[in-house]
Fold this sequence. Notes:
With about 425 residues, the protein is of the alpha/beta class.
Amino acid sequence: MLQSADPLKMLPAPDPSAAAHSARLLDHIRAEITAAGGAIPFSHFMDLALYAPDLGYYRAGTRKFGPDGDFITAPELSPLFSRCLARQCQQILEALNGGAILELGAGTGIMAADLLGELRTLDALPERYCILELSGELRERQHQTLGKRVPDLLERVIWLDTLPEAGFQGVILGNEVLDALPAERFRITAQGPRRLMVAWNGTGLEIIAGEEEPVVTGTIARIEAELGWRLPEGYTSEYVPRLKAWLAAIAEPLTAGALLFIDYGYPRTAYYHPERATGTLLCHYRHRVHDNPLLLLGLQDITASVDFSAVAEAGLAAGLEVAGYTAQNYFLFGCGLMELLAEEISSSPPLPKEGGEAGTYNLAHSIDYLEQARQVKLLTLPGEMGDRFQAIALIRNFNIPLCGFTFRNQLNRL
């Protein structure tokens, strides 16, 4: 993570068009600050930076995913991720005797395409594949990706502007969705917990501590009571005030099935560990990571790690059951990752070298094997995505153990 006092000097400069776009969003945020009397909560700032219509990072047309974007997600790293996820969906859909899949924010559409392709191979296609996507640019990219990779299944895909109506049965998927929910930032001061605000100082945006607020004081008191320790003075971190309402809305249409979220984060005791005294907030821009959310407005992603204990609590409050929680590597192992890798290797038999003996590996086969092994390592190794990313399943009217959590279910960590 970049810790420079001026990380902007270490980041690639935006082109003039992108810089102008960022300036327009800054003007919009300044107007919100002025209307609010001089400062807005950090959660409101993050909401504007990411979701302001036509200006926010996820509502504008900048390229976000992949080598030409700001970050790479697991589905883009390896199709094996989506194929494993398809195995989990297969189990749920078959137990329900059919149903649909709803993906919350489908990125480039690669996960949807690979997942549908694997479900076709398994003869377990959903009745429909719904995508809830706010970005028009991403919708177009998703349509192109699906049309290129699984053109015969494109008619099964439906793009939604709002959540489906009641009666939805099947699977609701959210891969790297929770981390983009607007987070409230707080700091423990000598006078007690204070919500951090974003203000305009005459030359630029700045983060300041707000006044005492009972809702913030009460929230931190509850967190400390559950932790069993007091957060020290100067400790800065985040929580998501709208998580319960958001999850309740997502879960409301579901009559039977599961919600599955995969994201980077921790259970609460690890989330608010003393070693994370500066919080978990990170910004992503052109594959660089830094911690200043006030830069490159509308051009960089702003995220906070997920408190999975809070997700579990929100699920219970919404009338769901918590069926499973585990690290991403254990989830993928439970869904048959190593078996899929073995199948991939065996399905591409080595070819003889020109003039060589039959059965010797050719260079292309060796490179393919090494690349797939590299991808699996990134998905599963501790220190990579393996333990930094977590999976949680919330269910309604569904009582079959989920395969993704059979390798190691870590509900006790929540």
